[in-house]
């Protein structure tokens, strides 16, 4: 019933012992409360004055307050414990995410990562809070109450003992029934419930086709279908709550009637009978509390599983190797490199030897493995088999701090943080001077743009603030890279694919000087860049099918010529 | 929060009957629970007074069983009725939300680029569901119950009735209001903080590769933890208040039990069941079940502030007012005229189009080029009449496009940069173009766009859900499907709004070939960001700063315009 991972939380043993102690104490107060109340009522019933039963009323009040105080103390303790546990899990998770980097983000999705870190952790916190106390109460309090009932009257005790397993069995059976019913309808449910958001997202298409007005009724009809499907599942799903309610109230009724009959036959007195009657609901209360929070705990449990899937991800375990800063004489040799995605091929059999400051173009059709190669070179992906050497160091993968700190990486759509221009540009060097920032901005041709803004360098960029065009975002990213002159290796992944041709030309003028005195890998399908490359790699179906200088490749009349002819000629109807 | 509300309140009135039924069932369920304890208390006391005949306790025995079964049955029914009600309301709410959004459908992608407003709105509907189920219904039931309790107890004694009025008044009104006052603002604050965390974390997860390259990931984790700690401080105060408040509520219940004891002890005289003494246990035990019904009210009231944003967002949506549509039949050939058009999105913002003049004759193929932000997309919206020019007019055969209202879809079709495919079958996605299209017609059109072979190979063919095939549909294929839809619709004018951005040149050229082969004879307005394929156009226009910078047939431009030649040379490669 309790997750194994819960039992590994630091401090859990102590908490469990305290919770057990509090549960026992609370059980005693519950019993005291029932007995004193019965004594007071029996006293009044038998004709005593209020003043004669005042001590029992006092005891009742004291027990009642005691019980609630325990609740208060327990909640306080659990609130604290749950938060500190959740906080530790969150820190571990975040550290892991920011260590594993894009690989895990790509696998899990940005949205899922943020939801997991924020809502997921909250759910875990809630889960820890609920499950520990509810389970402990359910396992301890009923026994104490039942024992008391047995002391007063074994027949009532027997009734209560028999009902309990009955409740559990029914709840399990009905739980399964509801689950299988829900599972059966799951696909239909998904579709019906996503229909609305799907319609909203496609609303412009509907409008363009003149269907949007008419579609309003379809939304209503689908929603109504969803209502009917949901109701038929709910009918079964809440049966388990019904069963719990039913057995609880029915047991109270049965106990009351049996007690009544035996009272008439003078087999039992009013005081024990009344105590039993008051205790009966208390006997069921912990299991009712548990079941009412069951769904919240399920959410928490699922969230916890998802979070631990990331935390337990071993990630790239390649040993850290010392790599010298890249110089004119440095040499990167890849004798062998294999990488596969889960469901498709990636890159195989790669052989490559690059020396010093060279501009290496990577060309190929979409899906030929250009981006995969860049991701392997950046160390975001870890190869399955590899034989890589940089100078004299042997590496398993390029996921090496010494390598990554030399990299400048430029994706198709570089990310601009929701920060000021200064912070964005100085991202790699938070302590860079304003002068350096200005110089970098000048170099990428953004000076007039920045000067026109009212807040200049302090203008906040990114979503919801000052939005940038694709070209401007590229320039900011370039400036970011420029400020760190120690970075001698540049990786470009189709940086101009989304840009209009004139912006591309402007940007090219800014980029080319930056590429001098650096090692550059430039993946693109825009052919004009090839003239500026010292060396070209041609990718096809994940394989490096040809490499050489532009002249060599043009003379070879091989895959490169075939590819470029198709690109220019445009005869292919793919 | 409900002042001037038109999204929540009206539904309470609209479906008054099922709502009243739900409330009635809820009250009956609680009444049965109270009745069970009340009646059991009476039954045991009466039995203990040793009635001569068992028939004297026959009625309480029967009632005990009735109440015992009644409580779960009514509770079950209440849940079904209230869920059904809420889902019914949801269907209406969804339709209404859709209708409110529909007029602006075309601008969604631009206007609400930041954040997922659609997801947010659809989430809001779930929030409103919870508002009904967790706040409004319990509040109505609790309030009604309060009235019943006070009236019934007042019927026995003014003193008792008044004390219940005050004590339960605390639980039903005073403490919930106090909770809202004390914690409402904190909840709102916590929500804002959490939203900020969401935005922040998303921002930084999107930019994760930069954190890795800058090797400052640890810095971010620390920063995030700091914000979390601030949020925790607010939440801690919420919890602290909640623990103390819950304790206080329980103490009030304790006082109610004592008051019930004192009142019954004072007013019901007698010895061993003579007089009214058998009712003592009944009244005292009857109080306990009420605790469960009244206890959650404070928490519910406190959390109601969480729903405020959703209600506000809905009420801020424009009210859908239908413009009277007068249909004007256009007869081909259709000539489009952009006549001295000025346009800016608002008075303050910069002018997008400036005295623009274009004439497009029937069957003409026009390419529009320009940097991003030059007004290309704005022009397409003006052509469709979704935007109205500040000065000048856009006409088809001398009728303003904005006057064509919803008839415009008969004449102009649009293919976007990112064609939306609905999460349904391929056939349904195609039939958006023509709802009555036969299967043969669908295959025919798929053949024309070059997808027939591929879809034939899918096991479920036309009935494949696009989502299942989502991985298989590449960018180019999505555009082909979108073209198929347009072909089914068979409109005379087609706007292609940068449909090939980001595709590799071979895929792009293939797609362009298909587009123009299949759209032969129609007017095509092609917005594009570079020059691949423009040679097959009748006319090319470059827009810059809201005006036409150059125009002519591709041959003319090639012969006379140096800039055009330069761009073309670069675009071609080498």
From TrEMBL, chain B:
<dbReference type="InterPro" id="IPR027417">
    <property type="entry name" value="P-loop_NTPase"/>
</dbReference>
<keyword id="KW-0067">ATP-binding</keyword>
<dbReference type="GO" id="GO:0005886">
    <property type="term" value="C:plasma membrane"/>
</dbReference>
<dbReference type="GO" id="GO:0045454">
    <property type="term" value="P:cell redox homeostasis"/>
</dbReference>
<protein>
    <submittedName>
        <fullName>ABC transporter permease ATP-binding protein CydD</fullName>
    </submittedName>
</protein>
<feature type="transmembrane region" description="Helical">
    <location>
        <begin position="131"/>
        <end position="152"/>
    </location>
</feature>
<dbReference type="Pfam" id="PF00005">
    <property type="entry name" value="ABC_tran"/>
</dbReference>
<dbReference type="InterPro" id="IPR003439">
    <property type="entry name" value="ABC_transporter-like_ATP-bd"/>
</dbReference>
<keyword id="KW-0472">Membrane</keyword>
<dbReference type="InterPro" id="IPR036640">
    <property type="entry name" value="ABC1_TM_sf"/>
</dbReference>
<feature type="transmembrane region" description="Helical">
    <location>
        <begin position="21"/>
        <end position="44"/>
    </location>
</feature>
<feature type="transmembrane region" description="Helical">
    <location>
        <begin position="247"/>
        <end position="264"/>
    </location>
</feature>
<keyword id="KW-0547">Nucleotide-binding</keyword>
<feature type="transmembrane region" description="Helical">
    <location>
        <begin position="50"/>
        <end position="70"/>
    </location>
</feature>
<dbReference type="InterPro" id="IPR039421">
    <property type="entry name" value="Type_1_exporter"/>
</dbReference>
<dbReference type="GO" id="GO:0005524">
    <property type="term" value="F:ATP binding"/>
</dbReference>
<keyword id="KW-0812">Transmembrane</keyword>
<feature type="domain" description="ABC transporter">
    <location>
        <begin position="336"/>
        <end position="570"/>
    </location>
</feature>
<dbReference type="GO" id="GO:0015421">
    <property type="term" value="F:ABC-type oligopeptide transporter activity"/>
</dbReference>
<dbReference type="GO" id="GO:0016887">
    <property type="term" value="F:ATP hydrolysis activity"/>
</dbReference>
<dbReference type="InterPro" id="IPR011527">
    <property type="entry name" value="ABC1_TM_dom"/>
</dbReference>
<feature type="domain" description="ABC transmembrane type-1">
    <location>
        <begin position="21"/>
        <end position="263"/>
    </location>
</feature>
<keyword id="KW-1133">Transmembrane helix</keyword>
<dbReference type="InterPro" id="IPR014223">
    <property type="entry name" value="ABC_CydC/D"/>
</dbReference>
<feature type="transmembrane region" description="Helical">
    <location>
        <begin position="158"/>
        <end position="181"/>
    </location>
</feature>
<dbReference type="GO" id="GO:0034775">
    <property type="term" value="P:glutathione transmembrane transport"/>
</dbReference>
<dbReference type="InterPro" id="IPR003593">
    <property type="entry name" value="AAA+_ATPase"/>
</dbReference>
């Amino acid at each position: 019933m309790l997750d194994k991972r819960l039992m590994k939380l630091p401090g859990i043993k102590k908490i469990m012992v305290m919770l057990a102690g509090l549960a026992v104490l609370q059980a005693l107060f519950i019993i005291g409360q029932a007995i004193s109340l019965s004594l007071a009522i029996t006293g009044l019933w038998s004709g005593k004055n209020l003043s004669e039963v005042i001590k029992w009323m006092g005891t009742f009040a004291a027990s009642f307050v005691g019980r609630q105080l325990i609740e208060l103390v327990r909640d306080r303790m659990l609130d604290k414990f749950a938060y500190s546990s959740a906080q530790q899990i969150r820190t571990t998770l975040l550290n892991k995410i920011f260590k594993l980097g894009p690989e895990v983000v790509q696998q899990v999705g940005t949205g899922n990562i943020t939801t997991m870190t924020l809502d997921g952790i909250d759910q875990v916190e809630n889960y820890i809070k609920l499950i520990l106390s509810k389970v402990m109460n359910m396992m301890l309090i009923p026994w104490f109450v039942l024992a008391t009932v047995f002391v007063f009257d074994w027949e009532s005790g027997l009734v209560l003992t028999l009902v309990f397993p009955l409740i559990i069995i029914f709840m399990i059976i009905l739980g399964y029934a509801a689950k299988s019913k829900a599972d059966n309808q799951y696909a239909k449910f998904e579709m019906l419930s996503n229909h609305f958001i799907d319609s909203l997202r496609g609303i412009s298409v509907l409008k363009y086709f003149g269907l949007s007005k008419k579609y309003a009724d379809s939304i209503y009809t689908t929603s109504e279908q969803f209502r009917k499907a949901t109701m038929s599942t709910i009918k079964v799903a809440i049966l388990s709550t019904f069963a719990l309610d039913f057995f609880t109230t029915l047991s109270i009724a049965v106990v009351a009637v049996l007690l009544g009959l035996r009272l008439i036959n003078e087999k039992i007195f009013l005081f024990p009978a009344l105590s039993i009657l008051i205790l009966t609901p208390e006997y069921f209360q912990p299991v009712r509390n548990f079941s009412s929070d069951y769904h919240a705990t399920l959410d928490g449990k699922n969230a916890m599983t998802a979070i631990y899937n990331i935390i337990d991800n071993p990630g790239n375990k390649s040993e850290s190797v010392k790599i010298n800063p890249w110089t004119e004489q440095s040499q990167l040799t890849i004798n062998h490199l294999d990488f596969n995605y889960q469901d498709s091929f990636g890159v195989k059999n790669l052989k490559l030897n690059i020396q010093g400051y060279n501009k290496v173009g990577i060309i190929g059709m979409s899906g030929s493995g250009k981006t995969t190669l860049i991701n392997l070179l950046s160390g975001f992906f870890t190869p399955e088999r590899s034989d890589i050497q940089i100078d004299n160091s042997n590496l398993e993968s390029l996921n090496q701090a010494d390598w990554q700190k030399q990299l400048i990486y430029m994706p198709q759509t570089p990310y601009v943080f929701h920060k000021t221009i200064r912070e964005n540009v100085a991202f790699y060097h938070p302590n860079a001077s304003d002068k350096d920032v200005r110089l970098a901005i000048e170099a990428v041709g953004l000076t007039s743009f920045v000067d026109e803004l009212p807040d200049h360098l302090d203008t906040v960029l990114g979503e919801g603030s000052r939005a940038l065009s694709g070209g401007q975002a590229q320039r900011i990213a370039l400036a970011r890279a420029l400020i760190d002159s120690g970075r001698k290796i540049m990786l470009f992944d189709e940086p101009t694919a989304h840009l209009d041709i004139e912006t591309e030309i402007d940007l090219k003028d800014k980029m080319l000087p930056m590429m001098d005195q650096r090692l550059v890998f430039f993946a693109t399908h825009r052919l004009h860049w090839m003239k500026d490359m010292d060396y070209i790699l041609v990718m096809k179906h994940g394989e490096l099918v040809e490499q050489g200088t532009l002249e060599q490749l043009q003379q070879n009349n091989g895959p490169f010529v075939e590819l470029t002819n198709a690109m220019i000629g445009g005869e292919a109807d793919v | 929060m409900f002042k001037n509300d038109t999204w929540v309140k009206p539904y309470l009135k609209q479906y008054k009957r099922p709502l009243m039924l739900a409330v009635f069932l809820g009250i009956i369920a609680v009444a049965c629970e109270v009745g069970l304890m009340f009646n059991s208390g009476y039954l045991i006391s009466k039995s203990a007074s040793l009635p001569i005949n068992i028939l004297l306790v026959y009625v309480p025995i029967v009632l005990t069983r009735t109440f015992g079964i009644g409580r779960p049955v009514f509770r079950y029914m209440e849940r079904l009725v209230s869920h059904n009600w809420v889902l019914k309301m949801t269907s209406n709410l969804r339709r209404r939300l859709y209708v409110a959004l529909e007029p602006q459908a075309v601008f969604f992608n631009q206007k609400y680029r930041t954040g997922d407003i659609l997801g947010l709105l659809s989430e809001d509907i779930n929030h409103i569901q919870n508002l009904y189920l967790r706040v409004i219904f319990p509040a109505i039931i609790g309030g009604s119950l309060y009235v019943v309790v006070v009236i019934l107890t007042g019927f026995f004694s003014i003193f008792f009735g008044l004390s219940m009025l005050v004590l339960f008044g605390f639980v039903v009104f005073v403490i919930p209001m106090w909770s809202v006052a004390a914690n409402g603002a904190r909840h709102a604050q916590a929500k804002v903080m959490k939203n900020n965390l969401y935005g922040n974390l998303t921002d930084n997860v999107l930019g994760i590769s930069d954190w890795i390259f800058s090797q400052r990931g640890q810095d971010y984790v620390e920063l995030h933890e700091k914000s979390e700690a601030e949020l925790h401080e607010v939440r801690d105060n919420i919890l602290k208040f909640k623990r103390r408040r819950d304790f206080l509520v329980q103490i009030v219940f304790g006082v109610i039990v004592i008051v019930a004891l004192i009142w019954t002890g004072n007013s019901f005289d007698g010895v061993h069941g003579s007089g009214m003494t058998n009712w003592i246990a009944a009244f005292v035990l009857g109080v306990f079940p009420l605790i469960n019904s009244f206890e959650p009210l404070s928490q519910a009231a406190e959390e109601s502030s969480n729903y405020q944003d959703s209600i506000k967002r809905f009420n801020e949506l424009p009210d859908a007012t239908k413009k009277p549509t007068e249909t004007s039949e256009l007869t081909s050939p259709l000539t489009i005229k952009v006549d001295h058009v000025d346009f800016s999105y608002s008075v303050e913002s910069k002018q997008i189009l400036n005295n623009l003049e274009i004439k497009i004759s029937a069957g003409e193929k026009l390419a529009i080029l320009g940097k991003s932000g030059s007004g290309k997309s704005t022009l397409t919206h003006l052509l469709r009449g979704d935007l109205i020019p500040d000065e000048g007019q856009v006409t088809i055969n001398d009728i303003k496009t904005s006057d064509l209202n919803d008839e415009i879809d008969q004449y102009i079709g649009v293919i976007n940069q990112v064609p939306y495919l609905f999460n349904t079958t391929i056939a349904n996605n195609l039939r958006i173009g023509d709802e009555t299209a036969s299967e043969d017609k669908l295959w025919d059109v798929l053949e024309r766009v070059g997808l027939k072979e591929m879809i034939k190979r899918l096991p479920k063919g036309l009935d494949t859900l696009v989502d299942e095939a989502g991985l298989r549909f590449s960018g180019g294929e999505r555009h082909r499907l979108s073209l198929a839809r347009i072909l089914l619709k068979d409109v005379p004018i087609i706007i292609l709004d940068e449909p090939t951005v980001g595709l590799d040149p071979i895929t792009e050229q293939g797609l362009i070939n298909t587009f123009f082969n299949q759209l032969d004879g129609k007017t095509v307005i092609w917005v594009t960001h570079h020059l691949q394929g423009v040679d097959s156009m009748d006319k090319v226009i470059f827009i810059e700063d809201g005006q036409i910078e150059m125009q002519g047939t591709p041959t003319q431009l090639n012969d006379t315009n140096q800039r055009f030649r330069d761009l073309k040379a670069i675009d071609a490669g080498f």
